[in-house]
Design brief:
The protein is an alpha+beta fold. It has four helices and seven strands. The protein has a seven-stranded mixed sheet. A hairpin with a 6-residue loop joins strand 3 and strand 4. The longest helix has 17 residues. The two termini are about 25 Å apart. The relative contact order is 0.15. The structure holds acetyl coenzyme *A (ACO) and zinc ion. Zinc ion (ZN) binds next to strand 4.
């Protein structure tokens, strides 16, 4: 079941983040995002166990779809535990949070960065309508490139 995250979920969310992604953050990073953007912060829970999460923030910038300033949502991190993948859980998380970014925070587009080598995630985002915008060279600490992707709301 998808539900909004609660502050008490943060330890489990950090655990999932560490198991699934090379980008790990200190607890205060999760707390700050939760405090500011809790309405776009979701988890998947089954029988008391967290299986995945998505966290987002808002920012302003020049649109990826035309020369104008827009409020946009930014998917900071999304992950599902191995063993629970390919059941549509990330799809649900992304759909809920993009909807909340638009309705609660007035986002006109939503962006994210993903490793150019992370084909499962890129396929997932494309299936949900995100477009490849451009490559960000040496975006990650180890020098890997990111694919910037975006969708209009
Ligand atoms: N190979 C090919 N296509 C895939 C794969 C894969 N391994 N995984 C998902 N897809 C595509 C498929 O089209 C899939 O539909 P289908 O199963 O009917 O074929 C569609 O995406 C939907 O997949 P979901 O089941 O909704 O995705 P899932 O719950 O498995 O989660 C995720 C996908 C989040 C990428 C997961 O593999 C994961 O947690 N990976 C590690 C963490 C990660 O890479 N997160 C994204 C980093 S970028 C960022 O956070 C902004
Ligand atoms: Zn980002």
């Amino acid at each position: 079941m998808v539900r909004q995250a609660e502050p008490t979920d943060i330890p489990d969310i950090m655990q999932i983040n560490q198991e699934t992604l090379p980008e790990n953050y200190p607890e205060h990073f999760f707390r700050e995002i939760f405090d500011r953007y809790s309405k776009a912060f979701f988890v998947i829970e089954t029988e008391g166990k967290l299986l995945g999460y998505i966290m987002c923030r808002m920012e302003g910038g020049v649109s990826n779809f035309g020369l104008r300033w827009v409020r946009r949502g930014h998917i900071v991190s999304v992950a599902v535990l191995p063993g629970y993948r390919r059941h549509g859980l990330a799809t649900q998380l992304i759909q809920e949070s993009t909807k909340a970014l638009a309705t609660e925070y007035n986002a006109k587009e939503v962006i994210l960065e993903v490793r150019t080598t992370n084909l499962p995630a890129i396929k997932l985002y494309e299936k949900l309508g995100f477009q490849r915008i451009r490559t960000l060279n040496a975006y990650y600490r180890n020098g890997e490139n990111a694919q910037l992707m975006a969708i209009q709301m």
